[in-house]
């Protein structure tokens, strides 16, 4: 997003505590005099407050983004996803920032009875601390939008793929197959159905949406109009890596506590703004393997 | 609830920081040797942790319960309703408490397109910090239920009326009419439609639900199968107080930022367990006026 905004001519302030962010990803951006990097933690309210002076829009994408390990660190999702969001909201309010884009997640739908799942699906029951923390952040953002007039754009992403991908099933499987090409171990039964989106398509969608006039709260699902089984993705990864491993399964329909065996979002709202993804899920998986394989 | 549990033979630990709680309300309870009062703040994780040792159920009703003043103190709802809930959840998890009842609110539905509003209404957009904080707490409770097996009972209340009522429209109007019986000033246009429930009926409903087997997450709307206009309630209050004030209106369909002009919940789920309210809204308003008028 930083690279794209700089390319589009904007001046950008990036804030990262680099707990999961990777410094080399901003090497190119740092060559631009329109980019400022703040190496600090948004858990400190003063950090957001200082950075949000005189800005036109905030892209609040800082988060603990791993849905899988919530129960091992029950307070991490609260701190990184809710408290940080409150600090960002207060910074926006006190600085009069007019627009805020937020990276939510399809996990907020829990195990939806409606698939493909639209933005106004039945009031969900949360099944993971990650989903709970994102629905909490969404609620506070919406209340700030209503109470203080900050226009907010909430994006419920499927899992993202592509360049600079650092966690998720493709990197897990890739790492296993580099270490032992003859064997792959899979959490769950491999039949989990998930939807994915290529990172550049996601960025296009966000930038399309925030230029759109409309109500003070706008919520968009972001995904492709398709899903795949984990086993499909395994096939594409193995073909791209040219390996034929023996595959073992941990078993069960869920890969971990709070795993949702079927995620597929209805993305007609964002498509209604004219946006279309350019890559299929298979192409995005292959692009991710190519990225992981490239010498760095 | 404390008095009722003691009457039913239970041993009860009450925790209150008395920020809005009233000490005289537990005078009777304190005469029981089965009641322990902890005067402390649940924002301190150690308080909940110590109190939750060897308990069979937690009734987590501690909250900032006033929806109206959220925008004046944007962080209070987060602290009192979300952080306190996390402390209670961690106390339940670490002490192996099997059941948790939680006081949520009909405000979590925002301005629902479906009225009467069922528990699985369309995914709401939050319009108040209070609603946002309660939906956040609900999500974390649901995730703890799913992740750690704590059975949770989430109750989405309409506004409560009756004995020990300390805030809301009846006490506001009562106080005005005691001070100047000839004049009553009303926020909004008086046409807001709201539903109310008598406190003893609410307690009955909670105790009915938590004895019910079923899924690890159970969510119940609690209200009467009726609503009234603010103007109806004004008529009942004035009749009960025997006053005929001139009424002025601040105007607008909302009494305050985040006010919902029409709250009416579908309570068929809790009715399906056999529970019925004993008082109508009018009777509950009259009971509240009688309580406020009684010498203390």
What's this entry about, in short?
The structure is a homodimer of 296-residue chains. Chain A is an alpha/beta fold.
Molecular structure report:
Chain A is α/β, with parallel strands linked by helices. Chain A starts with a helix and ends with a helix. Chain A has helices spanning 2-7, 45-51, 76-95, 129-148, 169-179, 199-210, 230-241, 268-271, 281-293, and strands at residues 12-16, 35-39, 57-60, 99-105, 151-157, 159-161, 183-186, 193-194, 196-198, 217-222, 228-229, 246-249. Chain A has 9 helices and 12 strands. In chain A, the strands form 5 sheets. The first copy, chain A, has a 4-stranded parallel sheet, sandwiched between helices. In chain A, helix 2 (45-51) runs parallel beside helix 3 (76-95) and helix 3 (76-95) runs parallel beside helix 4. Chain A is 35% helix and 18% strand. Chain A binds chain B through residues 70-71, 74-75, 78, 82-83, 86, 89-90, 93, 108-110, 119-129, 131-133, 135-136, 138-140, 142-144, 146-148, 217, 219, 257-258, and chain B through 70-71, 74-75, 78, 82-83, 86, 89-90, 93, 108-110, 119-129, 131-133, 135-136, 138-140, 142-144, 146-148, 217, 219, 257-258.
